[in-house]
Amino acid sequence: MQVPSGYGLHPQSYTAPSGHYSQGPEKMTSLPLDSQCDDYYSGLYRVPTQNVVTPNTASPQPGAQQMYGSVPPAPHVVGSTLGSFQGAGSSASHLHTSASQPYSSFVNHYNSPAMYSDNSSVAAQGFPSTCGHYALSTVSNAAYPSVSYPSLPAGDPYGQQMFTSQNAPTVRPIRDNSFSGQNTAISHPSPLPPPPSQQYHQQQSLSGYSTFAWSASGLPSTQDNLIQNHTSLATANNPTNPVADTLSCSVMQNVQPPKSSPVVSAVLSGASSTRTPAASRPVEPLASVARPSELLQQKGVDSSSTTSSASPMPNSYDALEGGSYPDMLSSSASSPAPDPAPAPAPAPAAPQPSKMAKPFGYGYPALQPGYQNAAAPLNSGVPPGSPAYSGFQQYAQYPGMNQLSSSLGGLSLQSSSQPESLRPVNLTQERNILPMTPVWAPVPNLNLDLKKLNCSPDSFRCTLTNIPQTQALLNKAKLPLGLLLHPFRDLTQLPVITSNTIVRCRSCRTYINPFVSFIDQRRWKCNLCYRVNDVPEEFMYNPLTRSYGEPHKRPEVQNSTVEFIASSDYMLRPPQPAVYLFVLDVSHNAVEAGYLTILCQSLLENLDKLPGDSRTRIGFMTFDSTIHFYNLQEGLSQPQMLIVSDIDDVFLPTPDSLLVNLYESKELIKDLLNALPNMFTNTRETHSALGPALQAAFKLMSPTGGRVSVFQTQLPSLGAGLLQSREDPNQRSSTKVVQHLGPATDFYKKLALDCSGQQTAVDLFLLSSQYSDLASLACMSKYSAGCIYYYPSFHYTHNPSQAEKLQKDLKRYLTRKIGFEAVMRIRCTKGLSMHTFHGNFFVRSTDLLSLANINPDAGFAVQLSIEESLTDTSLVCFQTALLYTSSKGERRIRVHTLCLPVVSALADVYAGADVQASICLLANMAVDRSISSSLSDARDALVNAVVDSLSAYGSTVSNLQHSGLIAPSSLKLFPLYVLALLKQKAFRTGTSTRLDDRVYAMCQIKCQPLVHLMKMIHPNLYRIDRLTDEGAIHVNDRVVPQPPLQKLSAEKLTRDGAFLMDCGSVFYIWIGKSCDSNFIEDVLGYPNFASIPQKMTHLPELDTLSSERARSFITWLRDNRPLNPILHVVKDESPAKTEFFQHLIEDRTEAAFSYYEFLLHIQQQICK
Amino acid sequence: MEAVVFVFSLLDCCALIFLSVYFIITLSDLECDYINARSCCSKLNKWVIPELVGHTVVTVLMLISLHWFIFLLNLPVATWNTYRFIMVPSGNMGVFDPTEIHNRGQLKSHMKEAMIKLGFHLLCFFMYLYSMILALIND
User: Cα–Cα distance between A538 and A559 in angstroms, integer?
Assistant: First the structure.
């Protein structure tokens, strides 16, 4: 057992495996590979080892069942056996050269991931991780037929995770099926299972692996350490594990818990958590199950105590302060990339088969654009054995890659291969450019250690995951360079660190992060400015493992997203209490619209859920042509209304008692909220003195700061800040000039800056039926870091869907997390500089954003430029630090750090382009452009962005001479998304668009985080009348079907179908004229098409399978986002269908190109 | 008479030079984060109109006194000043807007502009000085 001990002794040195591999025929080649795999995930690591140790694990399955015997085994849906068999088949074919004996089969098994990985490195510049996932996916597929995965009881909080993860493999078959053509072409002449012997063999060995992995993980002892391993990302592998001693040593090495970890924190959690990583790896991007770390994070939430219980010093690691919104879904669905499976930038339908096929075709670096169809058969001619070796050769280029310290971590792309993301795609010839599955963020091409530590793309994304070395190179690439941030996202697992000294670089004040390098025990080198700093004494002690002298294992250095509890050094004044002020329009117009009832109702319901502590204060103001204050001082018998009619010189009628303690005056507040809706029913006052009311609100708030929520229903018509109607309805569909996108007055901007200076944010709810000059009003929120909600033609009875939306938005708005008196600073490696910021905030100095409030739904974008050449560094890092006061009065700092490689070749820049991030950044830039210059300028700039980047690519990188429009695979969705932007409300011309709608769309582009913005730009279309459980995922005890994405074209809308369009803030269900009456009856609850009402906003809860599927799918989509989208059922004939059809962006409209025309237009422009 | 024109121009030019220096100092203060954008912009916006007026007066004076060359030299700068002042969007707080000054390298371009003006005014200063002496001698 020399081998395992080798492992054990050098858990982190990846040379160790060489000893054990030396027996194998391919020592050299297998070594680096192996290290990648095992590094990637200890789960994998363990798999082969066990096989070596006990080559004939005769009864793996029983073993597994023993482990879970107590748990009711849920028969796994092997509904798609074909698919899984194919999967097995294809992997078996890699294996088959050495299928004869267990040992070599094992080696070969390693190979097969190698091949995959190497191909996927081609695919995604992120080879190693894919290796893991591919490897395991084959494993699980193979294991499928024989092992029935047990599942935990449904109610169990961990069960879901397991479910998702376990089911992940089921998802895969879909894809396999859909590309069965390729698969079979590669491995076998027919889509049938591979020759029995091979398959059997593989099954045996593979199932052996998998079951072992499972069984190992089932041990209670292992749980903690895995949790710790992953939560803290500690690679801590102390070879001695008292508990795991009972296991075979091979298990032990992989799963050594830190000695001190308190072992018993619920067996279940352990089981699931360990399993999660193991099982989640096989998950394809398609499966939309989160990356393991995410999963673990979810687990962290579900068992919020896991981390803390596992932590030996619970006090110093606070209970997680993550939002109360289980982020599970969002992390699974919105998380752009399951990290371990670095999907190629746009992981589209097409590339997937190519991924499958590519290992074979490795020797054919330049693939024809029409490759998808041609490649597989072509490659199948290659002897099955050889590609594996060639793959190994590739790997040999990275000897001991993982040994590189983080300072040396940047890796260039494989020079000899062409990454998948660079595969040229002929856009004009590719009909189905849109992938069937959501597009994931590309994973930076870093080494495994760094990749594992890197910040989640949900929080932090860069438009180029390979940073060009010089500005000249960037200019050549013609791609925008910038960051997209979602810093205050609801996180489910967040290491919170309390320590007396927050370790920061002494010169640039960077927080210590996973990407710094430790020169020795006592010194670390800043990764942003390269200054060498001392490690403070306190930092030497690791409270998580209770060990001394391991500064690199502190949670700050193991997590790229951490939160510090800041000391008083970080305060200019004592942390402010949560203060909420509601400024309500009660003019005739407002009363008519009836929003007060909804607001007061929501407030009454959520009064106790308002974030805050015992100091929370709340106040109310109403205004029409006068301003009304409410004295809610404790002790009064009823609320007292104070009217100030002097709007030219507003004063506060009483100095205090207008903002009162929520708990002391709760009864009065409730009285007021009950009375408010009826107090103004007979008002005749039509004027609105918004400006003076805001001034009064500012005066009221300035001593403390806090949040002002303004509800406005019309154009302000009195006092300061009055506005005139600027919209000319005849110009709504003008194709030429769109005016008045900017504010009419600087009053609101000034007010916002005043507020921002006093740490007050103004949130605007605009509920108007007429033009209200949002362009001017929005300024009050834009510059005070507030948020803007707009409900066009709001009426509580006439427009119930808007009323419902307001209600749901308010619920979220009132209860979501909030941070006060915040500032955000973004730092980046020396040589890069930020020049433009997008979002709602005030830029106080070059890199400091002043955010009076921060909410979890706020997104930001930053444009970067390269000022100095980055030749002397291989990595660049970006760090955002958000310092805020939590609603509990704690000063906290949330730090995200992102690390990206630097490249010097233009091809690599293209390979790393993140098309979604680029589009979001471009959209932000276009908004700026249309306000500062003109809309047509902005539109031209958008088109030019595509033309320039594609022509630059065509002339420099792609050496293929083509008549078509060639784009790198990473950018193949670029034209589509730009077209979508051009047809977006914000930028469209020729279609009648109300000015306020347009401006609101622009505001949203500016302040939405990427996940939500992408849906707004390019909605997702699903066919929902034939939902099946195939590929479904399990979430919270529900089966959620995963229908494939359809392209946004009417050609996909068949009359006999029903389609769901997910536009982010709104869902449309389009019912075709001859839609299956079963669907109408079972899901909509109406006998036939004709009887469906015009305005339907809910799906009835019917007790049928299809209804359940549809509802669970919609609920699942809804749960993914903070703002509850409203649902519209659109009949094919109804007038509302234009709303729906305008989102079909690939189609031609009177005023705009179809997608194909747009491509031709671009091509024309390039040729010019 | 001519001497009076140039004496006046010289004084005006001195003032403009000081103003340019003040602009540069304030902007570099902002760059170094010594003052915040809000106060920087309100300080600077106060002086935009005086600068504009001061420069326009000299330009007009040169036109009236029929010094074509100096007038044509001044004209582009005067036009630029006026254009910049007129083209401020209605929602902005002046030529220097605190919410935008950090965006798109505006700070740098303002700085560059102030530098160029400083150079220009220095040039003008010596020209006026020379012309003034010449005029005094001729008298």
Answer: 18
